[in-house]
Amino acid sequence: MAVLDRVRGSEATTARTARQVRQASGLGLLLAAVATVVWSGSFVASRALHDSVPPVQAAFWRWIVAIIAVAPFAIRETWRQRRLIRRHLGYIALASLLGVTVYNTLVNQAGLTVSAGSMGMIMAASPVLMAVYERLGGRRLGARRIVGMAVACTGVLLLVGRGSLSPAFAAGDLWMFAAALSFASYSALLRRRPTEIGGLVFLFTTFVLGALMLAPAFGVSLALQGGFEPTTGTAGPLVYVGVLSSAVAFLSWNKAIALIGAARAGVIYYLQPVCVAVLSFVLLDEVTGPAQILCMALILGGVMLGSGVRVRGSGVRVRGSDVRVRGSRRTRPDRLRA
Questions:
Q1: What range does the domain containing 247 cover?
Q2: Has this prediction a pTM greater than 0.85?
Q3: CA within 20 to 30 Å of 139's CA: 67, 279, 296, 309, which one?
């Protein structure tokens, strides 16, 4: 009887862990999708500001708006965790530089010459870089995810090249590739975020540090280019990118990385070109032809193929994470609470 009770207890533990894994995975995928959709709108907003607000100034004011939006919810806890922040200041400063200071400034710079649709398509290259980082970190990607990324990446290349796998990129496209590299590096770095620092505290701190690092360039831009006139056409996009694309999207993305890993969240990020194309059609009356629809089908198919969760028999495996259950043994349960 004692042996039977232990077996039943082991099965119950496995089933409970399987449910936790499915719930964590589902939430992670949902949060990654929310961030992707919101960020898709930020490319349209960046493009809308390209002829009225200098790139560095647009980036600086975006983070000022984001700081104001997040401060009421984060400033008290940030003060309480100030010693932890000081202890990990080097890591947080690097994350701020990559994800706040550099990334968005490069996107705005690209927006001077590159359409919103093209920016979204080029940014879809970042999940490949995220997967490379995870592989270098020792994680197995699995054949299914590799095939999914290959299919989605093929769709992106065909979409950018208008049916050709060897597209010719302009100077603005190179700014976007640099932005993709910066964002992928930031996402890979998130897996090493100190767990004792709260997600909202980390987000608020990176916003503040990123804005401080951007301040000297902002001053130079003001001196050389002058300011801009605040109007509905400039304030609206800045509020969108400051509140939604910064506060909401970054918080969602950071949590998704903690739950499912950068490589798997990156597969969901392949949806961005599709979202941008839809927004371009709705807001800019850009027509999407049969070839573009076929490319989007490849992207969506790759996303679904590469983001799957497998729960099988007596074991549980979540692709792209460190959570595995074999029989009654549970490995790295802290990932379920990240």
A1: 2-337
A2: no
A3: 296
